Structures are given as structure tokens and as C-alpha cells.
Amino acid sequence: MKFKRTERIGAIVKILSDNPNKIYTLSYFTEQFNAAKSTISEDLLVVKNVFEKLHLGKVITISGAAGGVKYIPKTSKEENAEFLIDLCNRINDSERLLSGSFLYLIDLIYDPGIASRIGKIFASNIDYSDADYVVTMETKGIPMALMTANAMNLPLVIIRKDIKVSEGPTLSMTYASGNNGKLESMSLPRRALKPNSKVIIIDDFMRGGGTIKGMIDLMKEFNAEVAGIGVFISMMKPEKKMVEDYISLIQLDVEGDEIIVKPNRDILEGTEE
Amino acid sequence: MKFKRTERIGAIVKILSDNPNKIYTLSYFTEQFNAAKSTISEDLLVVKNVFEKLHLGKVITISGAAGGVKYIPKTSKEENAEFLIDLCNRINDSERLLSGSFLYLIDLIYDPGIASRIGKIFASNIDYSDADYVVTMETKGIPMALMTANAMNLPLVIIRKDIKVSEGPTLSMTYASGNNGKLESMSLPRRALKPNSKVIIIDDFMRGGGTIKGMIDLMKEFNAEVAGIGVFISMMKPEKKMVEDYISLIQLDVEGDEIIVKPNRDILEGTEE
């Protein structure tokens, strides 16, 4: 089959966009579209332009034997600001108030579109260049952790709370939950991580940081290094967390009937070009 | 900013592809690209061609006041066959055998790329035209259910096993688990589903069908109608399931050290054009 220029470009955009951080060789495209290398090279220049002009991320060229092009999702500061401000407005709704100063948020954090945007923001603000896995703990963080793993092109690892789960030999640990200081358990199959891995930890929520601290400790048991931590919502109180070096997208405080919620300034003014 | 034809086409492909089943008006694109309606109409014809020629799904035009174009992900039978056969080969590995005839599969089903493909296959084989939600039960089905919800452009609802979870007033139910007939519990916040909803149930695994049967019963308590059921792996035994009218992608049997695994013929010879 022969393809017109416009068709090839549309197709290349689709392939790269569906497979973030995956390297495609020039030969892959020449075979796919039955076209010369020079033709595909020109196409790729246009594709790069599309992504940059519309702030859709970057398409970069990797040279060498294992070379080719890959798409790196990268959200712009303006886009992030707009998205997070809108999300904060939706969170700031007294109908979301549950007893115990909790908020009903699962309609938002389980939403595939929102989870996908959150994943792209984490991928734009956390350095995952050496990372081997994205790690989260069940349950509410799974959708955004999966979308983060998708944007980073990394496998996802889910820590379970239930130690009865049968996934072969499993490493279990207790930790003090931030909510009430109660001892809770977390567990992960021995073979879930290869030795000496680097991991990115993603979770939906942080109060004191006890759960994330537990996850970091569990990673040590696997000889894994934590290369970055991303949290969707962090509570303003307590100010002192059990964890340092994390990024959070939204800061939250609930006092009685009052909800205080705002995007984290670090993300809005972040380190992007 | 002005855009060249090729750039507009690349950008339209990206926008549609990132947002399956979402309707975009002609005006959206004319404003985005500062171009005339006739120009965008021509672009859209090319875009439609790209998707059809490469079997990437369909871009359809919706007429009327709320009209526009939308992208419907649709996988081809050939693609599905190739993907599922490869997956079966990876499942058929004696190193995956756990005690109790279980298989270690979480490295596969938590993989974002695999979950995404599974989601698109479900979206290609289940009629979700009237559906309001994708529903799953924690934990292992969540990644593929999220990707299914993403492909269908529907919100995801996750049933919890833990009835202590604080998400406001919650409806809980016990059901007989297929594994051992033991009574287990499932729960869902009252406000997770709006009244008289239609739902698509997605789960990773089915032996006797007890869990899915429980989910169907729970849906009745919410006055919700189950419009379709998709299961990733169904065990060949018992042949008689507690549930009818489901589709499964892969059939599995484990006898001692022997793993029998194959794609479901219905999917390979499915109802697609």
C-alpha cells in the first residue's frame, strides 16, 4: 500500500503518541509506509514541529545503533495551571465533605481523562530517565499510577494491603498509618521487582507521609532505590511530613465545613523550559 | 499562529487519538488552527483515511447541533489474534506456576501497554453505546478496566472489598467467592452510580463466575442495568459458569504442571467488519 504525505504524518503521530518513550527506528517507518528513508526523515521533521507548536510534548531523535525517534509527553505550565485550577474548583465543593474531614474524590481520581492528565504532569515533572518501575499502593492511586507508568513507558507495580494474596513468595511489612497511627500491612511478591531497581513512587494522597515512608522502607527490602515520589494531593497539615523530596500537585486543608484547595506553586512555576 | 496542512493533520490525529469517543466540533478545530471550515473539512477526510487505512479505528461524523467528529478505537481481528497469541505464549511458561494451580500474571496485567490493548479489544467487542460506567472490583482488574473506560470514554467505578473504607454512605454485600465458596464482601459508595445507570463490568479473571455474579447482584441494588461483561481470562473449568452473556479473551486450564492457554475463538472470529 502507498501512503500520501499527509497520511504518513497522521499515522506517525498516532503511533508515537500511543507509545510514549518507545523508540521507533527509521526502518520501522520505511517498511510500514513503503517509503524511502529521506522521505520519512522529512515526515519526522514535520511531526516534531506539530508536537512543539501545539505543546504536546517532544519528539526526539536518538542516534546510534539502537537509535530512532521517540515521543516524550510533556505538558506545558499553562496547560497544567488551567487543568489544576479547574480540578481545584471541582474539589472545592461542600457536597464532597464526608465525616472525619475526608472528601469524596473518587469520581475525579478514577476518571480516565483526569488520571491520564495527572500521569502526564508527573512524567513532565519527575526525572524518570533511569527508572525501571512505577510503584503504587492499592487502591485509589492505581489509576493515576497506571497512567504515569504509561506516559513514562515503565511497568507498574502495585503493593497490596492484603497479605493473604497468593502471588508466590511475598515480602510483607507493617507500617504506622498516618491517619490514626494504627499498624497496617503492605506486601509485594518477591519477583515483582528485579534486583537493584530504581523506582518512581506514585500515590493519590499524603497526610503525614506514613504510607509513603512505608513504601520507601519496603523498597529498601527489595534493594530498590527510590528515584522520585509524586503525590496527587498533600494535606497542608501537618506541615512536617515523614518524607522529603516529593512533588505534590495539589495542596488541601479541610477545617470543619471549609475546604482550602490550591495547585502547588512548584508545579505551576516548575522546572520546565 | 498559522499551521500547514500537514501540521493540522498531525495535530487533529493527536487530539482525536488522545480523547476516544469525545465529540469535537468543526468550530473547535477552526479556532484551534485559525483556518476556514472548508479547510478543516478537507483535513478531516484525510484523517479518516489514515485511521481506516492503518486499521487504527474509525473517525465518524455526527451531524446535528451537537455534531462534530469523534474517534472510535477499534482493533482489527488480525491485530487481536497476533496480540492474544503472543500473550498466550508468554502466559504458557512453567515459571509462572504458583501453588494451588495459580499463575503469576501481574507483570502482564499491570503492564500499561498490555492493559491498553486489552481495553481497546473490549471496546471493540462490547456494545457500550448506551453505557454510563465501566465497573470493576479491586485490585487486579483495575488497570485493564481503566484502559477500557478510557477507550469507551466512560467514568470508572471500582468496587472495594474492604467495607471499612470511608467514602460516605456505602452499600455493602456478601457473596460466595468462586475460589473456595467462602463468603467475601464487596462495597460501593451510594453516590458512585447515578440512578438507573447502564454499566459495563470488566474483570481480569473468572473461574466459576461467583465474583461477577456478586457484582451483577450489587448493580441490582443500585438499580443499574448490566449492559455487557468482559473478562480477560476465563478458566475452562468449571464449564458451567454462574454468569451468561460475557466475553472472555483468553481461556485457561492448569493441570498439575501443564498450562493450557489459548485465545477465545469468539474474539478472533468476532463480530467486527
In short:
The first copy, chain A, is of the alpha/beta class and 273 residues long. Chain A contains nine helices and ten strands.
Main features:
six-stranded mixed beta sheet, Rossmann fold, PRTase_dom (chains A, B), two-stranded antiparallel sheet, Arc Repressor Mutant, subunit A, globular, alpha/beta, PuR_N (chains A, B), homodimer, 10 strands, 9 helices, 273 residues
Question: Could you walk me through the main structural features you see in this protein, from its secondary elements to its overall organization?
Answer:
- Chains A, B: Residues 110-250 form the Phosphoribosyltransferase domain.
- The structure is a homodimer of 273-residue chains.
- The mean pLDDT of chain A is 92.
- By secondary structure, chain A is an alpha/beta fold.
- Chain A folds into two domains: 5-72, Arc Repressor Mutant, subunit A, CATH 1.10.10.10; 77-268, Rossmann fold, CATH 3.40.50.2020.
- A six-stranded mixed β-sheet of chain A has the order 4-3-7-8-9-10, sandwiched between helices. Chain A has a two-stranded antiparallel ribbon with strand order 1-2. A two-stranded antiparallel ribbon of chain A has the order 5-6.
- In chain A, helix 6 crosses helix 7 (142-152).
- Chain A is built from nine helices and ten strands.
- Chain A is globular.
- At the A-B interface, helix 1, helix 3, helix 6, helix 7 and strand 4 of A face helix 1, helix 3, helix 6, helix 7 and strand 4 of B.
